[in-house]
Specification:
By secondary structure, the chain is α+β, with helices and mostly antiparallel strands. The chain folds into three domains: 200 residues, Alpha-Beta Complex (Aspartate Aminotransferase, domain 1); 266 residues, Aspartate Aminotransferase, domain 2; 153 residues, M1 Pyruvate Kinase, Domain 3, CATH 2.40.33. Strand 34 and strand 35 form a beta hairpin. The longest helix is centred in the first third of the chain and has 20 residues. The termini are far apart. The relative contact order is 0.10.
Length: 797
């Protein structure tokens, strides 16, 4: 008995200590309602506040600078969500909703069951009330009893049934029951798609789609969408992180997007709409069509701090799953072995398992209490006593009428009788004719402790148990174990623990060699610049430099992201130009220099210890990028030097299987500038408005190659050309923005030279050209003073 009642810790002492430092407000309170909403950490909220206090976020539907930054930051959160669930935007779309209920409503309103012979909505008996609401949109409905579902899924399935009527069937079930904590097998998804439920529906269609209702499961478990591929997944973030509330996602598998046919459209979801006629064209991107109105963007941006909190506390969701299970098993075993002095049991527990395996049981304990004479204790009485002891728990049917009625053995007539007697959902009418109308539920989160459990158990023992207490195994223990094993092990297999690594491909620019003939246009290469950290100061090459298939070696191989996870540029912080990276090839170091701060060094041969580092996803010019986080030391240095909270340095993630031909550069491998064109520009700027050297003006445009042709804008006529013996291809003119108005030596901003370019070129602000290397398959050198040989291919500007 002693071994049976022993708690088995999962966390290390370090993890317990870290968690304790971020939940000091709880003091003597015991919170056991994590299935309702988990707790947020104090540092998590402080970091969110700091982020909002030091950043400018605005409506992502606008087009100004802060709007575009906000849009990018929101998309970075989409990537982070997909990464967390071990999938990518190649397989799933992320639609932000107000929560799981809203996500289920979208599916209910939009799912195409078919017209002439509509398919069936099948749902498990143990489902949330929000799932039952989906029935109002389906012509054919089928409830599947829990034990029947286990039986059907364990049999060989048949996919040979007819599909001539074009009907689509939908099966909805919870990954984890919010009433009992039962984890229903995720391989049911595959079973349903293979026809396990065909005999239950009249349509005989083999088209089955699955909704995995996963807010409770995702709160304390790792949902791996590389292994299990439901068509639709619903998530609520307050279940995972405590904050933000009123925010969730609907994950939609790409192959199933066409099943959702949307009728209503709101702001931001259309490409074109007429006011005078009922004509509109929806957005082409799936999530844009379904996210009506302005997103709750400030709440979305706070999700990052939830993920950061889990990582900061040195946790992951596999560990959290084992931790919450261990706590729940400890309470379950203590309750089920607890007996009054007359030998009668103290509680009835409502579960499908006996807490043997965390693969099948989550961190929830559901029960009612009995008096020594066998009468039921009303859940309201337990709730009031818990409140007196500072214990937060939940009572009632927990918005899961199917599970509640199943475990309490309530027939439909019983429920109708309770209603006619005045009982409604959420009230304190706990006993009718001496029989319970609901139960008591404890649920655990990642910050729950054994002390929480002990406080609760002491309250039960002191308030509801006649003494002396008797500890013994319940008389029906063997029957409970037999039923549990029959349900979960009858097909002879458990859930897999297999893990699959994520690969985040970055689509490269494609370069084609057209073997154009050359006509001699000669010039010289005057300067080579690289920008090791995107948007920071330039590093000028003294003599020659290595070029790789991605561009100049180490050029834009690092980038700084802000606390929202998006790339920081000089548009947001002009001080970036004063951060000077230096490449020391002899010592294999990247040295960061900023006036007033000691230098900090980064090993060029070490893209961080990948066992300890983690991959981060960001955006550059609307494109997804991935990089290794370079650690806390350089993060703190950058945050202090640039006076911005939460900055991180990323180094480009190099996937051996990827054909990436770009670093963190925009659009092309190189940017080339003609010094004669710069001289032309300086002559056209009004006198006194650009008092600086030629080199300073060149730096405003941040080129890689500065060439010298005989005439200004000769570079715009290039098609393919040689620098030394290396072949390059022009990708067209570079469109300029307000970045060129920042003096790269001082960080000061003015209206020039943007004003002059806009005036002279009638609003088409192009200056310099984008360049890619042709057939860049190996490293080679490019040297100062190389001769440029090019062909005329385009009309002169």
């Amino acid at each position: 008995m002693e071994d049976f009642l022993t708690y088995e810790p999962v966390y290390s002492n370090e993890q317990f200590n870290l968690i304790g430092q971020e939940f000091t407000r709880m003091k003597d309170s015991v919170y056991l309602d994590h299935a309702g909403a988990t707790l947020y950490s104090e540092k998590q909220i402080k970091n969110i506040f700091n982020d909002l206090s030091t950043s400018v976020y605005s409506n992502p539907h606008s087009l100004h600078t802060s709007s575009k930054s906000t849009e990018d930051a929101v998309d970075v959160i989409r990537y982070q969500i997909l990464q967390h669930f071990n999938t990518t935007n190649n397989e799933y779309s992320v639609v932000f909703t107000s929560g799981t209920t809203s996500a289920l409503k979208i599916i209910a309103e939009c799912f195409n069951y078919g017209d002439e012979y509509p398919g069936t909505l099948a749902h498990l008996e143990d489902n949330h009330t929000s799932v039952l609401g989906m029935r109002n949109f389906a012509k054919n409905i089928k409830e599947i009893k829990t034990e029947e579902a286990f039986m059907l899924m364990s049999k060989n399935t048949d996919i040979s049934c007819s599909d001539s009527n074009g009907a689509n069937n939908l099966f909805v079930y919870p990954a984890e029951c919010n009433f009992s904590g039962t984890k229903f097998p995720l391989d049911w998804i595959h079973c349903v798609k293979n026809g396990a439920l065909n005999k239950l529906v009249e349509t005989k269609s083999k088209n089955w789609y699955v909704v995995l209702d996963a807010p409770g499961y995702a709160a304390t478990n790792h949902l791996d969408l590389s292994l299990y591929k439901p068509d639709f997944v619903t998530i609520s973030f307050y279940k995972m992180f405590g904050y933000p509330t009123g925010l969730g996602v609907l994950l939609v598998r790409k192959s199933s997007e066409e099943l959702l046919k949307k009728t209503y459209f709101g702001g931001g979801t259309v490409s074109m709409v007429l006011s005078s006629q009922n004509v509109m064209v929806p957005r082409s991107t799936f999530h844009e069509r379904f996210e009506d109105g302005t997103l709750s963007f400030l709440s979305i941006l706070s999700i990052k701090h939830g993920f950061d909190t889990i990582r900061r506390l040195k946790l992951n969701f596999d560990i959290i799953s084992k931790h919450t299970f261990s706590l729940a098993r400890y309470v379950y075993r203590n309750l089920i072995s607890l007996h009054h002095s007359n030998g009668k049991p103290v509680s009835i527990l409502y579960h499908d398992t006996t807490f043997e395996d965390p693969n099948f049981q989550g961190g929830k304990v559901n029960f009612t209490l009995l008096r020594p004479n066998g009468e039921h204790v009303g859940y309201s009485e337990v709730l009031h006593m818990a409140n007196l002891h500072g214990i937060h728990l939940r009572t009632g049917c927990h918005c899961n009428p199917g599970a509640c009625q199943r475990f309490l053995k309530l027939k439909p007539n019983d429920v109708l009788k309770h209603f006619s007697s005045g009982h409604v959902c959420g009230d304190q009418n706990d006993l009718i004719d001496g029989y319970p109308t609901g139960t008591i539920r404890l649920s655990f989160g990642y910050m729950s402790t054994k002390e929480d459990c002990d406080t609760f158990l002491k309250m039960i023992e002191s308030c509801f148990v006649s003494h002396p207490i008797i500890r013994k195994m319940p008389s029906h223990w063997n029957q409970l174990e037999d039923r549990s094993r029959k349900l979960f092990y009858s097909n002879g297999k458990k859930l897999t623990d297999k893990k699959v690594d994520i690969v985040f491909p970055i689509t490269p620019e494609t370069v084609h060699d057209k073997n154009n003939p050359y006509r001699d246009i000669r010039g010289s290469l005057e300067h080579i610049f690289l920008y090791p950290i995107k948007s920071c100061g330039a590093y000028q090459v003294a003599r020659n430099w290595i070029i790789t298939p991605k561009g100049l070696k180490y050029d834009r191989e690092w980038m700084i992201i802000n606390s929202a996870g998006i790339c920081l540029t000089q548009k947001q912080n002009k001080k970036l130009c004063l951060l000077k990276p230096v490449i020391d090839l002899k010592k294999n170091l990247l040295v960061l220099q900023f006036k007033g701060y000691p230098n900090i060094e980064i090993d060029l041969n070490d893209s961080t210890n990948k066992k300890e580092a983690h991959l981060c996803q960001s955006k550059i010019c609307r494109e997804q990028v991935v990089g290794w986080d370079c650690g806390d030391e350089v993060s703190e240095w950058l945050s202090k030097a640039l006076a911005m909270h939460g900055l991180r340095l990323l180094r480009q993630y190099e996937d051996e299987d990827s054909s990436t031909q770009l670093s963190f550069a925009n659009k092309a491998q190189y940017l080339m500038l003609n010094s004669k064109s710069v001289e032309w520009l300086r002559r056209h700027v009004s006198e006194g408005n650009l008092n600086e050297s030629l080199k300073s003006t060149i730096q405003r445009f941040r080129p890689n190659f500065v060439v010298n042709f005989e005439e200004a804008f000769e570079e715009n006529e290039l098609s393919e050309f040689l620098i030394g013996d290396v072949q390059f291809k022009s990708l067209g003119k570079c469109t300029r923005c307000q970045m060129i108005c920042i003096d790269q030596e001082t960080g000061c901003i003015s209206k020039e030279p943007l004003l002059t370019l806009s005036r002279e070129f009638k609003g088409k602000i192009n200056f310099g050209i984008y360049v890619n290397q042709v057939n860049a398959e190996r490293e080679s050198d490019v040297e100062m003073k190389s001769i440029i040989v090019a062909n005329h291919a385009n009309e002169r500007l």
